[in-house]
Amino acid sequence: MQTQLEDREIMQILLDKHKECAVKLTRLAMECSDFNLRNEVLRTLDMCLKHQHHLFELMKLMGWYETKPASTEEISGLKNVIRQTATV
């Protein structure tokens, strides 16, 4: 018996695969010794991130991906982490 995937499941799979792809492309870019290849990987990563964001926005619009606003404390904590990371 073959089970058919719902639209929501297909979108979630696509979103997850784009996230995986972005991680792999980021690692690849960090390991490239060839400047031209690195730039091509970065262009591909940018396209992947744009597609991922588009999928996220569509899922959010459909009510399939719910988010909650971050608290002031969470935002401040994240800003501190970013500042600390940037100074390393």
Description:
This protein starts with 6 loop residues before the first helix and ends with a helix. The mean pLDDT is 94. The protein is mostly helical. It has helices spanning 7-31, 35-61, 72-86.
* Helix vs. strand class: mainly alpha
**Major beta sheet, specifics?**
none
Overall mean pLDDT: 94
Are there runs of 5+ residues with pLDDT below 50, and where? none
Number of strands: 0
Helix-strand string: HHH
Radius of gyration: 17 Å
Which secondary structure elements does this structure contain, and how are they paired or packed?
Elements lengths: L6 H25 L3 H27 L10 H15 L2
Helix pairs in contact: 1-2
In brief:
The chain is mainly alpha-helical and 88 residues long. Helix content is 76%, strand content 0%.
List key phrases describing it:
88 residues, mainly alpha, 76% helix, flat
